[in-house]
Amino acid sequence: MTKRDLPLKVIVWGTGSVGTEVLQTILDIRDDLEVVGVRVYSDEKVGVDAGDLAKRSTQGVLATTNSDDIIALDADCVIYTPRKASLDDVCAILESGKNVVTTAFLFHPRRLDPADLARLTAACEKGGVSVHGSGLNPGNLSAVLPLALSGMTRSIEKVTLQERADWSVYESTEITFNNMCFGQPVESISPTANEFLAFNSSLFSEMVWFIADSLNADIDTVTADVEAIAAMEDHQIFDHLLKAGTTAGQHWRWVGRRGDEELVEIEALWTVGGEYPGHWPKPQDGWTLTIEGDPSMQVHFISLASFTREVPLEDHVHAASVATAMQITNAIQDVCAAAPGPVTAADLPLIRSYGGFGNTPRAELASR
């Protein structure tokens, strides 16, 4: 990519919590990016200006639910953040000559079904473009951070990423109760209980493979299992009542093994209602990454709206969406400059903040 390529023309595909953060960021500070299209999924957003969707000034770009119209636009990159991912959509975008950055899937395409990988690769080659999946977790914390820390090790015995979170503060009860199955019978919870859980589980399995492949673990298998815990009492979670006796806790483990040896593990300790089982591991809230090796090391990560200012609780909750959105938005220039094909955190340069402290945007630096 050369200086004359800026600003890059981009399409925002999906305007949920993450997509809206992307849109606001581009309109506010990304002078190297120009929004030329917006793909939405609800009829009430059709015909709404991109600026209105982002609570910003009018941009003259109207949202549509028509994928064909969006794909027909002239653009350099599509920022793909729908709730439900579609390989068909992404391949069509790539074949049209547009790069893709996504938070929805494709974090480690090498471990896709061989037919899907061949199709994805062919689409990239046909369009002469790249595709990159990332975010928070799955994403930076299960890809960039483990690789960065590994640079300080002589050898590694095991990598473990633990996530502990209570979902009670998340307003999207549709995801919490319908997709994640909280509030449903304990015996119904499994890695294949519904389409959402199966897909979600596959993403974390993919990240175990990513860490293992990137750090030469030579694992044989990745397994997924979950323990569901029943609520001791009723809990009112926004508009939804979680009843005693139904699922209020899910302890997930995705483990990569070589033979009988556990080498890579991603563990999720998720609750609703604040009831935390006494027999579960007790990491701090947030994410804890542990590398056992020579030397061993551990880091704890938490994302908040601020550590110094008083802000509403909902701002703290929303900070994870901001972090997820920025990981791919900040990667756009590097993805567009990459050779055609799927690219991961192991392939790209270290992604850093475009805006940073706000003194000298990179677009200005590029023009010097």
Question: How are the SSEs ordered, and which strands pair?
Answer:
Elements: E1 8-13, H1 17-29, E2 33-39, H2 50-53, E3 63-64, H3 67-71, E4 77-80, H4 87-95, E5 99-102, H5 114-127, E6 130-133, H6 144-150, E7 155-166, H7 173-179, H8 195-214, E8 221-230, E9 235-237, E10 240-242, E11 247-258, E12 261-271, E13 286-294, E14 297-301, H9 313-329, H10 332-337, E15 341-342, H11 362-366
Parallel strand pairs: 1-2, 1-4, 2-3, 4-5, 5-6, 6-15, 7-12
Antiparallel strand pairs: 7-13, 8-11, 9-10, 11-12, 13-14
Helix pairs in contact: 1-9, 4-5
What tags apply to this protein structure?
oxidoreductase, DAP_DH_C, NAD(P)-bd_dom_sf, Rossmann fold, 29% helix, 6-stranded mixed sheet, NADP, 2 domains, 368 residues, alpha/beta, Dihydrodipicolinate Reductase, domain 2, 7-stranded parallel sheet
Question: What do you see in this structure?
Answer:
GO terms for molecular function: 4-hydroxy-tetrahydrodipicolinate reductase. This protein folds into 2 domains: 3-136 and 322-366, NAD(P)-binding Rossmann-like Domain (Rossmann fold, 3-Layer(aba) Sandwich); 140-302, Dihydrodipicolinate Reductase, domain 2, CATH 3.30.360. Helices cover 29% and strands 26% of the residues. It contains 11 helices and 15 strands. The protein has helices at 17-29, 50-53, 67-71, 87-95, 114-127, 144-150, 173-179, 195-214, 313-329, 332-337, 362-366, and strands at residues 8-13, 33-39, 63-64, 77-80, 99-102, 130-133, 155-166, 221-230, 235-237, 240-242, 247-258, 261-271, 286-294, 297-301, 341-342. The strands form 3 sheets. The protein has a 7-stranded parallel beta sheet with strand order 3-2-1-4-5-6-15, with helices on both faces. Strands 8-11-12-7-13-14 form a 6-stranded mixed beta sheet, covered by helices on one side. Helix 1 packs across helix 9 (313-329).
